[in-house]
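Data card: per-record layout.
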Amino acid sequence: MPEHVRALLGPSWIIDGEDSDLYEQLLAGVGAAVQPFDLIDWLLLKDVVALTWEIQRTRRQRESLMRMARRAAVETILLSILPQEGIRLTGASTEASRLASDWFSGDRKATKRVDELLDQAGLSSADVTAQSLSTRAQEFDRLDRQNELHERRRDALLQQIERRRSGWAKEVRRASDEIVDAEFKESARDVLAEPSGERLLSVRDDE
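The structure for this 207-residue chain is written out next.
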């Protein structure tokens, strides 16, 4: 991207902890893929990339919130189904808290034990998810509404781009989605700081 063009585009849409150099590479990469003609093209392209970045950030935040909510939900459910005499106090923690923490970290024994306790109580992972959603409903709703707003704004920009140059909006959408999504997954590891156990849990939930 020409330096004088970048100076006219203004600051990047990033938050503390995100990689500004990576964002600049993404903007330049999308530009190289779709070849904007002039400054107006670049201004529209920058806003599309920024909104795509926002959409991906919100999705990562939602996924992180769900993982944390599931850990709290498992502990709450275990406290309700474990017999009182089976809850051994260990400092400030209970057996339910320890089990939930180990389950969250991907410990196989803890996972097996939690599954057994849920089954004995006639519950399943679906009940854990339901508990997670109910306890964090307002936060999930806020993120969903925020994501919908970003998507509507990006769609409006793409319509404007299509009116400006027929067929270009499709190229811009594809390039921004592919490049931003691929790179954001790498940067999100540092931004969200996922413990390794959370990634194991996420993989198991998807299987």
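Known properties of this structure: The longest helix spans residues 39-81. The chain is about 80% helix and 0% strand.

See the next section for split statistics.
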